[in-house]
Structure formats: C-alpha cells, structure tokens
C-alpha cells in the first residue's frame, strides 16, 4: 500500500512499471549519477525513464517470465489430466478440464466452417492461457511486489495481459496464421480477393488494396487493444483501491468491500476477455479457410 515514504502518485507509477532489461546508450547518465561507458551497457532499468530510453532493446522480464510460467503451468496441468483421463465417470479437476475442453470443442464446431485439426487445440490454448494471465489480476496488488522487493527486485508486474507487448505478440501470432492459411487455402485467389473486393474493377485496385489491407491489419490491433485495455483498466482500479486505503481513506467505505466487490465483477471480465479473444481468432481463421 501507499506508505509514508510514497505518495499515491508514486505508488501507482511504481505498480505500473515493468521490470525491464535492455541496453542504455553510451554516455547515458543513470538515476544514481553514474554514466554508461562508450558502447552502451545491458542493465536492468531503474524506473520508466530508463526503460523508455532503452528503445527497442527493452525486454519486460516480468511479463515474459509470468506468461511463459503460466503457459508451462497450463501445459503441465492438462498433460497430467490427459494421463488420468479414462472411460469412467470423471471427477474433481479432471471433470472440470473435460467440461472446458467440451465447451471449446462445441464452440469451434459452431464457429469454424473449415476442416483443420489445429483449430480446436489452438482455441483451447488461447482461452486457458489468456484466462490464467488475466486471473493474476485477482492476486492482491501488494503481495508479489513486496515479496520481490525483499529479494532485491524493485519492480514486478504479474499480469501479462496488461502489457501491450504480450497482447500484441498473441495477436500478431494470430495474424501470421491468418495469412498462412489464406495463402495455403486460396492461393492466388487470396491476392485476387484483396485486389478486387469490394469493387470488382481493375480501376479500383489501389482503393481495394488499401481498404482490404487496413481491414486485415485491424484484426490483430482490435484483438490486442481490446484485451490490453480491459485488463489494464481492471488493474488500475485495483491499484487505486489499494492506494485509497493506504492513504488513510478507508473510512469512506467498510474495509475490503471495494476490493471484494470489484474482484467478483472482474472474474466476469477475466473470463469474457479470454472467450472473446478465442472466438474472434476462430472466426478470423474460418474466414481464411473460405475459398469462394
């Protein structure tokens, strides 16, 4: 919480700063007054200013670590369930996983109109992975950063989906699949589709190309920004609530009611955002498989 040594503004900025590793240019003056030697140096950034000055070399270590870790957790849990699955009546966690798999399989059958064995496993991976990343938003905002501070790690954001680098990484992966299957299924017809739609006349080819390419690029942008925007707003509200109580304003509402109320509502947001990303991915890939 925002304590005696931090203003509310400093508290919020600290919680929204990623643990960043990258290269600072030679001659750069750091926060402690030291100067980076000629040729630059690969270091952990101290604060948002140093992270911004690292440019494209900056890597959000916390987002990468948590997203990969949650992906490994998802793979391990589902691998264990797959080994335990039998023809008998499932129970416990196995039953829950089978319900998720069945739900996603039905969604793919209803939404995807082509034939591709990759789509259902892809949809399952997207839904569960994004759900787990979003679920980290329910962890109290001060617990992990405080623990990491004790270990000497100054910054730590544990919700990967509040990092646009992660959401755009996912959406760009979807765009690559869209382009791959559009070319594979439609061949030259894909180029024809871009050039002659919506106006089927050679004179309008430049206009058609502009409109179709913008529409194509809008798909990953909308996927990434929708997920990022909703999760970032949710995280911000949790941080503001924590800052409110840390600033001695808990008298305004009974302690904990705001956190609990928002957490209950946010469970719906977490699940819905994972579902929307999955469904739109299936729809876009279904369109890529449509060969007129």
TrEMBL record:
<dbReference type="GO" id="GO:0045259">
    <property type="term" value="C:proton-transporting ATP synthase complex"/>
</dbReference>
<feature type="transmembrane region" description="Helical">
    <location>
        <begin position="118"/>
        <end position="144"/>
    </location>
</feature>
<feature type="transmembrane region" description="Helical">
    <location>
        <begin position="237"/>
        <end position="257"/>
    </location>
</feature>
<keyword id="KW-0375">Hydrogen ion transport</keyword>
<keyword id="KW-0138">CF(0)</keyword>
<dbReference type="GO" id="GO:0005886">
    <property type="term" value="C:plasma membrane"/>
</dbReference>
<dbReference type="GO" id="GO:0046933">
    <property type="term" value="F:proton-transporting ATP synthase activity, rotational mechanism"/>
</dbReference>
<keyword id="KW-0813">Transport</keyword>
<feature type="transmembrane region" description="Helical">
    <location>
        <begin position="203"/>
        <end position="225"/>
    </location>
</feature>
<comment type="function">
    <text>Key component of the proton channel; it plays a direct role in the translocation of protons across the membrane.</text>
</comment>
<keyword id="KW-0472">Membrane</keyword>
<dbReference type="InterPro" id="IPR000568">
    <property type="entry name" value="ATP_synth_F0_asu"/>
</dbReference>
<dbReference type="InterPro" id="IPR023011">
    <property type="entry name" value="ATP_synth_F0_asu_AS"/>
</dbReference>
<feature type="transmembrane region" description="Helical">
    <location>
        <begin position="263"/>
        <end position="285"/>
    </location>
</feature>
<feature type="transmembrane region" description="Helical">
    <location>
        <begin position="64"/>
        <end position="82"/>
    </location>
</feature>
<keyword id="KW-1003">Cell membrane</keyword>
<dbReference type="InterPro" id="IPR045082">
    <property type="entry name" value="ATP_syn_F0_a_bact/chloroplast"/>
</dbReference>
<keyword id="KW-0812">Transmembrane</keyword>
<keyword id="KW-0066">ATP synthesis</keyword>
<feature type="transmembrane region" description="Helical">
    <location>
        <begin position="165"/>
        <end position="183"/>
    </location>
</feature>
<keyword id="KW-1133">Transmembrane helix</keyword>
<comment type="similarity">
    <text>Belongs to the ATPase A chain family.</text>
</comment>
<protein>
    <recommendedName>
        <fullName>ATP synthase subunit a</fullName>
    </recommendedName>
</protein>
<dbReference type="GO" id="GO:0042777">
    <property type="term" value="P:proton motive force-driven plasma membrane ATP synthesis"/>
</dbReference>
<dbReference type="Pfam" id="PF00119">
    <property type="entry name" value="ATP-synt_A"/>
</dbReference>
<dbReference type="InterPro" id="IPR035908">
    <property type="entry name" value="F0_ATP_A_sf"/>
</dbReference>
<keyword id="KW-0406">Ion transport</keyword>
């Amino acid at each position: 919480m925002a304590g005696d040594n931090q203003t509310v503004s400093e508290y919020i900025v600290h919680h929204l700063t990623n643990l960043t590793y990258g290269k600072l240019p030679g001659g750069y003056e750091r926060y402690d007054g030291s100067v980076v030697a000629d040729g630059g140096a690969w270091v952990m950034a101290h604060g948002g200013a140093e992270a911004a000055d690292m440019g494209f070399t900056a890597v959000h270590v916390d987002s990468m670590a948590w997203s990969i870790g949650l992906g490994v957790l998802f793979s391990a849990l589902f691998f264990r369930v797959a080994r335990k699955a039998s023809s008998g009546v499932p129970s416990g966690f196995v039953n829950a996983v089978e319900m998720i798999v069945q739900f996603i399989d039905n969604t793919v059958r209803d939404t995807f109109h082509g034939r591709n064995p990759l789509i259902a496993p892809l949809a399952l991976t997207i839904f569960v992975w994004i759900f787990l990343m979003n679920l980290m938003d329910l962890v109290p905002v001060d617990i992990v950063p405080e623990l990491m501070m004790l270990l000497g790690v100054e910054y730590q954001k544990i919700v990967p989906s509040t990092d646009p680098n992660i959401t755009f990484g996912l959406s760009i992966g979807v765009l690559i699949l869209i382009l791959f299957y559009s070319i594979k299924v439609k061949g030259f017809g894909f180029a024809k589709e871009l050039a002659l739609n919506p106006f089927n006349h050679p004179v309008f080819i430049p206009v058609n190309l502009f409109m179709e390419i913008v529409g194509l690029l809008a798909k990953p942008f909308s996927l990434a920004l929708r997920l990022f925007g909703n999760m970032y707003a949710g995280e911000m509200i949790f941080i503001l609530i924590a800052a409110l109580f840390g600033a001695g304003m808990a008298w305004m509402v009974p302690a904990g009611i705001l956190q609990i109320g928002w957490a209950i509502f946010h469970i719906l947001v977490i699940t819905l955002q994972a579902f929307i990303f999955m469904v739109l991915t299936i729809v876009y890939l279904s369109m890529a498989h449509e060969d007129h």
